[in-house]
Amino acid sequence: MLDRIASLLPQTDGYLAYWQLIVASAALFNSIQNFVTLKLTRRIYDKSSQPITPLQARTFAVWTLTSAVVRFYAAYNITDKVVYDMALFTYLIAFGHFSSELLIFRTAGINPGLLSPVVVSTSSLVWMFLQYEYYVRP
Question: How many domains does the structure of the chain reveal?
Answer without folding.
Answer: 1
